[in-house]
Amino acid sequence: MKFSRREFIATSAIGSASLALDLNAQSNNAPKAAGPGKNILICSANGHNYLDRGHAVLEKGGDTLDAIMEVVRGPEEDPEDDSVGYGGLPNEEGVVELDSCCMHGPTRLAGSVGGVHDIMHVALLAKTVMEHTGHVMLVGEGAKRFAVAHGFPTMNLLTEHSRKVWLLWKETNSNQDWWGPGPASPHFKFPTNGTKSEDLKERIREMEKLAEQIGIEPERRMAAIHRVLYPPTGTINCSALKANGEMSGATTTSGLAWKIPGRCGDSPIIGAGCYCDQDVGSAGATGSGEENIKIAGAHTIVENMRHGMSPKEAGMDALKRIVRNYNGDMARLKYVSMKFYILRKDGEHAGVSMWSGTKEAPSKFAIHDGTARFENAAYLYEGEPQEWPPMPELQTSTYSTL
Fold this sequence. Notes:
One of its GO terms (cellular component) is cytoplasm. The chain has twelve helices and 14 strands.
């Protein structure tokens, strides 16, 4: 059948109108976010001191993602937090590389940046990518140039203290790098028990002498040595829920200390480090980024809740997926650290952790639903994870499955 141009346009218009009506009907029938009747923020423990200012944004009717930015910029600006933003521990070349992602529930938009140098507020940069581009992720030099074009100031993110700790690592432990294989690899070989405690004590004494020569303050030397021997990870994740049901989530980090340049963990990965669907809930993570990427942890948790699991059940299931990837091998799993922070659309929340922590320092998360506080996380295993790289003579923790 042939159509004239006028008939084709008329037919197309009718079809478009019908499609619009159909989509509108679907939208009207879609599940709505049921608000909890109060404003709620949940985040990793390092965001606790900044929850009040994020909650104040929500109380004034502000946007959920703007409230989150108020929380996460606190650790980003804190030179004493060496896992996020300014003062973060650098990669193996002495360069601080930052990663972040965010999701905005009301618009269902997302933004992400990875491997960014010289820009402090990368969570806000991820939000700017979301708002001002047709992309979701920008990385490396392209992300930095985009930041500069949008007025973000550039700065050296390596503080004097972080530089000195990096020098200590470079001088004493740079042979312990991240070139692998890691414990997840079938080619990973466990260390022998040849290293003696006395040998380690002597090594630490030598490191203390070098730390003094480098100029690390006496009260900070042992912490610096610990960071050299056991490279830390560190991140802040935060989710927000307004009384009316609007939600958002974000994650930001300086990543793994002494990492291979260009390494990105889960923090800039939508669906791993952060995922939000305000019809269901929001989730995010801190810990072993590579393991979380492999299970798309945040997305898995939200989908679990979509299918009826509670926040705690959804998070514990995600942890068990990591365990499955190791075939339950506790000799390897004891090096894996993972925490999830979970907020459902009705306000129910949970923090879950691979490990319980100690009685003196239990695994915990921060929450603000009118009062800022810490709550203990649910956990899969008793004890603390072993720090990496493994040193057999220091492995004194006990591990037992609940």
